[in-house]
Specification:
Order of helices and strands: HHH
Number of domains: 1
CATH topology: Methane Monooxygenase Hydroxylase, Chain G, domain 1
Distance between the termini: 20 Å
Low-confidence stretches: 1-13
Largest sheet: none
Radius of gyration: 17 Å
CATH class: Mainly Alpha
Structural class: mainly alpha
Mean pLDDT: 86
Helix content: over 70%
Shape: elongated
CATH superfamily: Metal-sensitive repressor, helix protomer
CATH architecture: Up-down Bundle
Length: 107
């Protein structure tokens, strides 16, 4: 966090934009966690390099999908609320989202 309140649908209630999707997101992250443990086991079992790389790519794609979903939640809740409220916070949220998109594109 950057010293300001980020990622909230309602600034007074401080509800995360992904609050309604929390269980589903957690389930997806547990699935990714299982994929990463599988990759670790593949390394320990001296599996073929390309097979390991394929699984790393799949886990990476799964994490990127979670990140995109979180970004969508952030845009439709936190950014939209900040814009509706007016003032400079709307532009701050847009800049924050733009930076997040930039980080995702570099990964």
């Amino acid at each position: 966090m950057h010293g300001t309140v980020v990622g909230y649908l309602n600034m007074e209630a401080r509800v995360a934009g992904y609050a309604n999707d929390k269980d589903r997101l957690s389930k997806r992250l547990r699935r990714v966690e299982g994929q990463v443990r599988g990759i670790q086991q593949m390394i320990e079992d001296d599996r073929y390099c390309i097979d390991v790389i394929t699984q790393v790519a799949a886990a990476t794609k799964a994490l990127q999908a979670v990140a995109l979903e979180l970004l969508g939640d952030h845009l439709s809740s936190c950014v939209a609320s900040a814009i509706d409220a007016g003032g400079p916070e709307g532009q701050e949220k847009i800049d924050e989202a733009t930076a997040a998109i930039s980080r995702l594109m570099r990964s």
